[in-house]
Amino acid sequence: MHFKPKAIFLDMDGTILTHQNLVSIHTKQVIDELREQGIFVFLATGRAFDEIEGVVPEGFKVDGYITSNGMAGYVGREAVFQHSLSRKLVEIIIEKARENKVYYELFPYGTNRVTLKQDQPYVENEIRDPKPETVGINEWLSRKQAIKDEIDWKEEVEGTRFSKFYFFARTKEHINQWKHELDVLKHEIPFSTSISSDHNVEVMVANVNKATGIQQMLNHFELSAEETLAIGDSDNDLPMLEFVSYSVAMKNASDEVKEVVDDVTQFTCDEDGVYHYLKEKIRL
Questions:
Q1: Alpha carbon of 271 to those of 65, 159, 210: distances in Å?
Q2: How many Å from the N-terminal Cα to the C-terminal Cα in the chain?
Q3: pTM above 0.85?
Q4: Strands of 162-168's sheet in order across
Q5: 7-82+209-281 adopts what CATH topology?
Q6: Would you kindly state where each structural domain of the chain is located, as residue ranges?
Q7: Which of 4, 45, 224, 274 has the most CB atoms within 10 Å of its CB?
């Protein structure tokens, strides 16, 4: 590394999160040390803001959060920007998801994620045991937890502000067919999609991604895009990794991600890869 970054952007799942959906105390410690040196550290995640607190250690702090693949940004608990899916698009997509029997979670701002009660039988059926071999354990555990404790099963959609849709399918064939349906729908109503595994796809506002979220966060802090570093592992990190000055892929990242970055960590997310990389490269 030829420079000491002024701002670092870290993905969560597959990056600072282990496959058991936990952030280690070592990762917290290295982030604390970086911030004490005056380096800004941000999370840039596909997760909604309310999903973060339950997977980080007590006392975990960063300078800001870019959530839902760039749909929203927070400093502390205060929103500094938020984009919203339209109510019309939400209703159209839920109807199409029902026709295709695709597992979905809708994330309204400020309340729990929502799935409609009429769709509960087929949604729960997608999470039946045993876990399909190709589904990552972290994604499977998250879906199990969502079904058990985190989804509000509603009679109808409420409100008008929504940060994203998350979709999942047990088989690659099913989710790929759904991605095709979404691509067709984009010709009628513009929106963007993002994937972080072979079994999911997420829907956000058109032309929104982690890179646009990073730019908005940099603007908020009056920081330049120069001397920025990001670490990620999957396809939804590509806009972020292409945007920053210096990009790093996790050892456990997809080959597609590794091909476009400046460096790769020596260790995986289950081996504190981010901790070891930052400790060595930033010379703490």
A1: 24, 42, 25
A2: 14
A3: yes
A4: 152-154, 114-116, 103-108, 162-168, 200-204, 192-194
A5: Rossmann fold (3.40.50)
A6: 7-82+209-281, 87-204
A7: 45
Q: Residue 30 carries which side chain, given as an amino acid letter? A: V
- Token pair, residue 153, equals 């099963």
Give the three-state DSSP class for 208.
coil
> Nearest CA to 48 among 97, 22, 82?
82
Tokens found for residue 222: 């009056």
Rounded CA-CA distance 163/83 in Å is: 7
**Closest by CA position to 208, among listed 163, 268, 264, 251:** 163
CB-count burial class (<10 Å; 0-12, 13-18, 19+) for 157: middle
Say if residues 171 and 156 touch (Cβ distance below 8 Å). no
Count H helices, E strands: the chain?
9, 14
Domain 87-204 has CATH 3.30.460.10: no
- Please spell the DSSP secondary structure of 93-114, one letter per residue: HHHHHHHHT-EEEEEETTS--E
In this predicted model, what pLDDT tens digit does every residue of 142-190 receive, in sequence order?
Answer: 999 999 999 999 999 999 999 999 999 999 999 999 999 999 999 999 9
Residue 214's Cβ-side half-sphere holds a number of Cα atoms within 13 Å equal to 31
